[in-house]
Amino acid sequence: MTIYRLYVQNGNRAGFWIQHRSWQNMCAQVLSIAGRRSGQLPGHAPDHDHAGVTVRCFDVRSGRDLPPSPSIDSDDDAGYVAIAQPSWSRGSAMNDPSFLG
Predict the structure, then answer these.
(1) Pairing mode of beta strands 53-59, 65-66
(2) Which domain covers residue 57, as residue numbers?
(3) Is residue 97 part of a domain?
(4) Whether the Cβ atoms of residue 79 and residue 20 lie closer than 8 Å to each other
(5) How many domains is the chain built from?
(6) By three-state DSSP, how is residue 94 classified?
(7) What mean pLDDT do residues 78-97 have?
(8) Which pLDDT value is given to residue 6?
(9) What sign has the CA pseudo-torsion 93, 98, 99, 100?
């Protein structure tokens, strides 16, 4: 599924967690799309004018920050899946609205 479709399925809101089929031990939190944390995406589905996606990547096991994956540049890639919020992220600064930018 694309990140855009996951955003729409999340009620047109960022802040959800993803993995990609090619990632090993990595996950990411989608912080914004087209600079938005909520609301309709620009353009039309399925590519939404290739709106920029901002994510923060982590080691899925420890929560350690990781550099973004090259596949994030392919925002219209259908290899993404939404995942549950990792337990290590609960109660952390990541849940503060200012963390989302």
Answers:
(1) antiparallel
(2) 3-86
(3) no
(4) yes
(5) 1
(6) helix
(7) 80
(8) 96
(9) positive
Amino acid at 82: A
CA distances from 2 to 32, 46, 60, 95 (A): 14, 8, 20, 24
Distance CA 78, CA 5 (A): 9
Q: Is the pLDDT of residue 87 over 70?
A: yes
Residue 89, classed as helix, strand or coil, is helix
Strands (E), 1-101: 17-20, 26-33, 53-59, 65-66, 80-83
> 82 in helix, strand or coil?
strand
Q: Is residue 30 part of a domain?
A: yes
Question: What does residue 49 show for φ and ψ, rounded to 5 degrees?
Answer: 55, 30
**Encoded amino acid at 83, one letter:** I
- The verdict on residue 91 lying in a domain is no
* 32 inside domain: yes
pTM: 0.85
